[in-house]
């Protein structure tokens, strides 16, 4: 098939979450901290938050080989689509939960690891069921299946700690949902099927409806602190610059149309989440927050030298123009210093960028943790 079909996939970006009110009296705050601080982090979505679930399924869309993970402490690839940690790892660490959010499909996880949270995310996935089916010709774990795994998770935990404790645990946990980029970049803009059915406005609305359904399902399953991540400035991802620019070699720059589509989508998502929040805050005591990574990534790209980067227009792996997943492999050349690169491969950020995105989300996380 054509090159975009093979190469474009998942993306996704990240994170975040939840928030709530801050201080009352010091004493009361301390008690609240003890009782309500977030003890687990559950993650759903695509490659930006998949810590290795795709290692365990039959897809070629994996990252469990060198040079992926080369900057992790033991330089061991985990399935994370970066040279190091993901934003969700930094969040878990910041909350004092643990250093890494492991993939649920790892059957060797201890009860302790399961209790403190896992990722159900799958690289290549999206809200549109077609996305997980068609990514690189093989199936990845769609969002409904991720929810099914969460239901299975709850049943397993119930056997260990009992129903009541399990439900309390879930209520106090943070949830991050990060998807939608693959739906737009891959399914909508690279395959013909959906473009025949929907214009871009209608497709955005279709995705928003799916997002809303997903959040509703999470709440029905007990989630009360949910962060929904927006879509990155798609037109600035190196792969989009390569595939959608008129002169992809000599005049590389963001392709504004795609970034505008992402921005529009994020604006609608924020409005949608506010509505869902109003309805459900009273009903369930739930908190639903929009997690912006769009503006922070755009800021990093626009002012990359201020952040100590030398390059954003190509990734660190290979030529940096198209490579990702199996095209970024042990035979591929890698840049000397990934901390000089905004992107690790043609679509996924380096650990340094993921850390900067985490920093931009930290205030929201702090508020959440203090609930
Ligand atoms: C908080 O925890 C303390 C000690 O475990 C307990 O006595 C108290 O009832 C809890 N408060 C709430 C609101 O759960
Ligand atoms: C998309 O199609 C809808 C009808 O389904 C129409 O109302 C809308 O104006 C169209 N939007 C664009 C951008 O073409
Ligand atoms: C990035 O650039 C914009 C506009 O040039 C500026 O307003 C903003 O403060 C800069 N941000 C950083 C972090 O340098």
Describe the 3D structure.
The chain is mainly alpha-helical. The chain has one domain (3-369): SGNH hydrolase (Rossmann fold, 3-Layer(aba) Sandwich). It is 44% helix and 5% strand. Strands 1-2-3-4 form a 4-stranded parallel sheet, sandwiched between helices. It binds 2-acetamido-2-deoxy-beta-D-glucopyranose (3 copies). One 2-acetamido-2-deoxy-beta-D-glucopyranose is lined by residues 31, 35.
Main features:
371 residues, mainly alpha, Rossmann fold, four-stranded parallel sheet, 14 helices, 44% helix, disordered N terminus, binds 2-acetamido-2-deoxy-beta-D-glucopyranose, hydrolase activity, acting on ester bonds, signal, SGNH_plant_lipase-like, GDSL_lipolytic_enzyme
What is the 3D shape?
globular
Largest sheet: 4 strands, parallel
The order of strands across the largest sheet is 1-2-3-4
Order of helix and strand elements from N to C terminus: HHEHHHHHEHHHEHHEHH
Number of strands: 4
CATH topology: Rossmann fold
**Distinct small molecules bound, one entry per kind:** 2-acetamido-2-deoxy-beta-D-glucopyranose
Q: Can you tell me the CATH superfamily?
A: SGNH hydrolase
Beta percentage is 5-15%
Provide the gyration radius in Å.
Answer: 19 Å
Pfam families: Lipase_GDSL
GO molecular function: hydrolase activity, acting on ester bonds
Protein name: SGNH hydrolase-type esterase domain-containing protein
Family: Belongs to the 'GDSL' lipolytic enzyme family.
